[in-house]
Design goal:
alpha/beta; 5-stranded parallel β-sheet; two-stranded antiparallel ribbon; 8 helices
Length: 179
């Protein structure tokens, strides 16, 4: 639980070093910070603590940050939620917003970036779905996400995507399609 003077913040990230440094920086800015390394641990902490804010990593092993966003928005609807990710895409930003996130930031983000996002006034009609990305754009983002997951190993990414290596080379040489 948080005391009445300092706002409570749930920080969920599987990167121990990043999580610890960000927690320390937020504590120095008068926040009561509760940390969790997994989606499961974060969801379990919702039963015992109330949070004013949350900073949630999108991609974690054994669960998704979107699961935490959804659970937090349902159980503690007053909480303002920032989703952090190193693998940003329009589709995941839309989904995070739809589930209850108030902001979506790419990594690396520092404590000041996060506090600005948490203190920003809510956008009008935040529940409305933004423009849907084109199929070509979604494909391009998926290819680049798989390529990043494979540490830019083109042969491995082509195998995972089920396409020929040369076809993948041609696809990634193109500029990203417009929305």
């Amino acid at each position: 639980m948080t005391d009445s003077k300092t706002p409570g913040l749930l920080l969920v990230d599987d990167d121990d070093v990043f999580r610890d440094r960000l927690a320390k920086a937020l504590r120095q800015r008068n926040m009561t910070v509760h940390t969790a390394a997994t989606a499961e641990a974060a969801i379990a902490s919702l039963a015992t603590s109330a949070f004013d804010f949350a900073v949630i990593d999108l991609r974690m092993p054994k669960g998704s940050g979107l699961d935490v966003v959804q659970a937090l928005a349902q159980q503690q609807p007053q909480a303002r939620i920032v989703v952090l990710t190193g693998y940003g895409s329009i589709a995941t930003a839309v989904e995070a917003t739809r589930l209850g996130a108030t902001a979506y930031l790419p990594k690396p983000a520092d404590a000041d970036d996060i506090l600005r996002a948490l203190s920003a006034p809510p956008a009008p009609n935040t529940r409305a779905a933004p423009d849907t990305p084109s199929l070509a754009r979604v494909e391009w983002e998926h290819i680049n996400r798989v390529l990043a997951d494979c540490d830019n190993n083109l042969s491995e990414a082509a195998r995972r995507l089920g396409i020929h290596r040369r076809s993948l080379q041609r696809k990634i040489q193109k500029y990203p399609p417009k929305r």
